[in-house]
Amino acid sequence: DAEITQSPRHKITETGRQVTLACHQTWNHNNMFWYRQDLGHGLRLIHYSYGVQDTNKGEVSDGYSVSRSNTEDLPLTLESAASSQTSVYFCASSETGSNQPQHFGDGTRLSIL
Amino acid sequence: RKEVEQDPGPFNVPEGATVAFNCTYSNSASQSFFWYRQDCRKEPKLLMSVYSSGNEDGRFTAQLNRASQYISLLIRDSKLSDSATYLCVVNPTGNQFYFGTGTSLTVIP
Question: Which of A104, A106, A108, A110 is the best residue to mutate to test the B interface, defined by the most B CB atoms within 10 Å of its own CB?
Answer without folding.
Answer: A104
